[in-house]
Amino acid sequence: MTPLAATDVVDAAARIAGVVHRTPIQRSRLLDERCGAEVLLKCEHLQKVGAFKARGAANALALTDPAATHRGVACHSSGNHGQAVAWAARAAGVPAWVVMPEGSSAVKLTAVAGYGAEVIRCGPDLASRSEVLARVVDRTGATEIHPYDDPAVIAGAGTAALELIEEAPDLEMLLVPVGGGGLASGTTLAAGGRVVWGAEPAGADDAARALRARRLVDASPPNTIADGLRATLSERTFAMISAGVERIATVTDDEIRVAMRFMWERTKQLIEPSAAVPVAVGLRGDLAGRRVGIILTGGNVDLDALQW
């Protein structure tokens, strides 16, 4: 595996500056009170394509071998990474193919197609995603951009935490959602020695179990409303999380619903369930007494199927 360092995140930030948004940081007095902590919200739901995934896709495409770029790019994704790859490909003027599983959000399917990518459906499990994507890559000659098991994607994802720390250097702790682990891995690179926690749905808790077991574990079929966090760790992201993440807290879908609705109603931030997962950890009281940065990872919500 290609080793990664903090300098890779710094280089990625320079590479994608002006391509992605430098998203704002917001505060909520009521959120602070409910959490018993000082909480700074990094608003990646206001990012290009409505998710932090634009950072990794932009960095990966910028680093793709120019000789291969004209053949296009391909990925598998439940939604946000697919949107990001489709968006980056359109900006570069190259074709894109996105393999999306059964159960993907309708709004995310529509958005991927809207950015000009060809959508190919597959079964709900990771094996089906990988098998269908392999056939697409073989047929098209496209370059695969993995949603999290890719050094360029990880470094790009870490730029969100880098920006947060640049603007709030006195943060004690960073808290991010964990699905496949790309954002958490990139955050550990940018953290500069600060405590890093992950947050995960109880119905898709392979990372929490892996951290406790100190090895990758078999992932049960995910069962959570947080569709962006149904992926499983790779060897690369497990190794980076094991080295740099202190704890992965898990929350129930009911707690996610409460957090998501709280953010909509009280802070006016339209976030998706995956982004509400770390907020749920805070509302439960796990962050009491800390000054913590939370990355709100995405805001692509299917308004025809609200989680409450």
Concise account of the structure shown:
This protein has helices at about 5-15, 30-35, 55-65, 65-70, 80-90, 105-115, 125-140, 150-165, 180-190, 205-215, 235-245, 255-265, 275-285, and strands spanning about 25, 40-45, 75, 95-100, 120, 145, 175, 195-200, 245-250, 290-295.
The count of β-strands is 10
In whole angstroms, the N-to-C terminal distance is 42 Å
Strand content: 15-25%
Order of helices and strands: HEHEHHEHEHEHEHEHEHHEHHE
User: What is the total domain count?
Assistant: 2
Main sheet characteristics: 6 strands, mixed
Provide the CATH top-level class of the largest domain.
Answer: Alpha Beta
Radius of gyration: 18 Å
CATH topology name of the largest domain: Rossmann fold
> What does the oligomeric state look like here?
single chain
Number of helices: 13
Q: Summarize the amount of helix as a percent range.
A: 40-55%
Described by the principal axes of the CA atoms, the overall outline is globular
Strand order of the largest sheet: 1-2-10-7-8-9
Structural class determined from secondary elements: alpha/beta
Average pLDDT works out at 95
Q: So, CATH architecture of the largest domain?
A: 3-Layer(aba) Sandwich
Essential attributes:
about 300 residues; alpha/beta; Rossmann fold; 2 domains; six-stranded mixed sheet; four-stranded parallel sheet; 13 helices; 10 strands
Write the layout of secondary structure elements.
Elements: H1 6-16, E1 25-26, H2 29-35, E2 38-43, H3 53-63, H4 66-69, E3 73-76, H5 80-92, E4 96-101, H6 106-114, E5 118-122, H7 126-140, E6 143-144, H8 151-167, E7 173-177, H9 182-190, E8 195-201, H10 206-213, H11 235-244, E9 247-251, H12 253-267, H13 273-283, E10 291-296
